[in-house]
Amino acid sequence: MREKTRRNFLGNVAAGSALLLGGCSRPAGTGSEHTAITPADLTLRIGPVLADIAKDHTISTIGYNGSVPGPLIRLREGVPVTVDLFNDTDTSELVHWHGQIIPASVDGAAEEKSLEVPAHGQLRYQLTPQPAGARFVHSHVMPMSDVNRGAYTGQFAFVYIEPRSNPGQYDQEVFLATHEFEPFFGAEEMEEGGEEDEDTKRKTKEFQQKQGKPNGWEIGYQRFTINGKCLGFGEPVRVKEGQRVLFHILNASATENIQLALPGHQFQVIALDGNPVPQPGTVEVLELGTAERISAVVEMKNPGVWILGTPMDDDRKNGMGIVVEYANRTGSPRWIKPQKKPWDYTLFGRSRAVPQPDETISLAFGKINGGKGAFNLWTINGVSFDEKAQPRTLQKGKRYRLVFDNQTDDAHPVHLHRNSFELTKVHGKPTAGVLKDVVLVKGFRQIEVDVTPAMEGLTLFHCHQQLHMDYGFKLLFNVV
Ligand SMILES: [Cu+2]
Predict the structure, then answer these.
(1) How far, in Å, is the centroid of ligand 1 from the Cα of 413?
(2) Separation of 243 CA from ligand 1 center, angstroms?
(3) Could you report the per-residue pLDDT of 460-478, keeping only the tens digit for each?
């Protein structure tokens, strides 16, 4: 069943159109039946969506403006917009503007006391988009064990904040967002691309032996999508030989860290989490922790029909991929398994020295196995999040070094709200100049980042793996 009003996300993008270009356009469907008097610059309506994700396979979920993903939202850096949020569901919602430096009231996190959109209600506010680059918007409610809520649904959309000057030259811009549907609880430990070395395997074994109980529930999925379509079902990315195609890729998963490759081609990474990198580097395989974004240019010089997809065979067969089709080429899309090579953030950084921080804050990540049929608990410096605890004070303008010390056997894509941080050390290797808002810290690894809090107010730090966040992996800062 195909809804007449549904937008074709890729079609929109390929045509270069979008929901909004920073100013006064008014999306359809925001009529006078609502209490808002003047139309907002940007309207998001949260409601039920029927989405055709594969042949003869329609899912019923919650989305923005009747589509999954929601429409591409283009904003201009520093140009204020009025936002109208409507909620057609039975539960209140939090709309989080991921990766933007905006006040806590509109950031969209309960811990920061952000404004909520009440069930069957609405909310209007203003925000000034910043910084430029690939951001996104998604639900920030805590679904806990309810896999039909929040980030497990279709509530996500790409946000692109137009920079004052465009980095890089390209002929075509393509936005791809990955997401999984039909989640289920299972006992299987999450695979992380199979690149674990012997040392990590040994540490994992020791870690599990020390725990009194076995590992708790993990999340698995039946369907994997890019732009809301399983591999082979949606429109292909249409390219021409000789084109430079700029891909903006977003991992909009609730829980999965992924890798993506385009056989016969290389990605020149120009931005991470929307921020231009000091040293654009070329790789064969991209890796994105949950909520990470990569902007990469691909030179189209290998004509054919290809699969841009995950190297994980089962996940690709279940949909994680999209066809890239050269003009005047036909046939079955080709997949060639890429060589295994660990993802290295420092490839895109500089090797210069960074300033000494004013203060260093160590954050040790811990896990308490939940046992069979229960949920694992997650800790930072030995404690799970307690909403009654006082937030930790940070001072605006001071440089803090956060030491992420992952003492667990899982990979954690950790996210700091309302700020960008600079990677300063990755697995013991110093680096500089890479600005991000999420970083994937693998099992038993350490990553250090420096942050100079940009704005006053409550600021949430958490693991972006939904199940980890919901079961304790959070810390609240207050910037004064
Ligand atoms: Cu985590």
Answers:
(1) 6
(2) 38
(3) 999 999 999 999 999 999 9
